[in-house]
Amino acid sequence: QSALTQPPSASGSPGQSVTISCTGTSSDVGGYNYVSWYQQHPGKAPKLMIYDVNKRPSGVPDRFSGSKSGNTASLTVSGLQAEDEADYYCSSYANRNVVFGGGTKLTVL
Amino acid sequence: EVQLVESGGGLVKPGGSLRVSCAASGFTFSSAWMSWVRQAPGEGLEWVGRILSKTNGGTTDYAAPVKGRFTISRDDSKNTLYLQMDSLKTEDTAVYYCATYYYSRSEFWGQGTLVTVSS
Known about the structure:
The complex is a heterodimer of chains A (109) and B (119). Chain A is an all-beta fold. Chain A contains no helices and 9 strands. Chain A is globular, with a radius of gyration of 13 Å. In chain B, 0% of the residues lie in helices and 47% in strands. In chain B, the strands form 2 sheets. In chain B, strands 2-10-9-4-5-6 form a 6-stranded mixed sheet, with no helix packed on it. Chain B has a 4-stranded antiparallel sheet with strand order 1-3-8-7, with no helix packed on it. In chain B, strand 5 and strand 6 (60-62) form a beta hairpin.
């Protein structure tokens, strides 16, 4: 199972919006509505930000939103804040396996 | 409060074996589906495998790079998840996280335990 494709980096100024893409295939992203997004700060465990394409766990700000079109999922962070600077990983269910994206480093300028 | 605490990491030689554990508390472990995810130094996340609850058959699935070498098991009486790693390779060097699992959704994670495979 190949990793999902994410851009290695993204950036935006405080208050702006940024969107991170995650491209897979019809065997993973396109085949199931089981896409999740994780935020990871250096030296910390990942934190679930979005699951089932567009659902937010309790406690995650509504500045974070998810969507999917075909084989590509997206994470949008609106109203960027300094604490949003982190690595972001998408993941998808894929026929009894899970596949992750390579990660995107989000920089808040 | 949900807690997952990994232990058992360390240095092992190529070809060797190691078992890491994950002690769970704060939720009904016996009903939970659980997974292992690893992260090599400076690299991204990689799914290792998962185990369903005994109610759902207790079945396991593994990522291709570890299939046949790694075994996930659980002891519901001890609220503990295990990862037995055999025939270890240098490329298995990583921080190993246990996490709750429901398809691609892992809501709770441990702090990770470092496994280093080196001669």
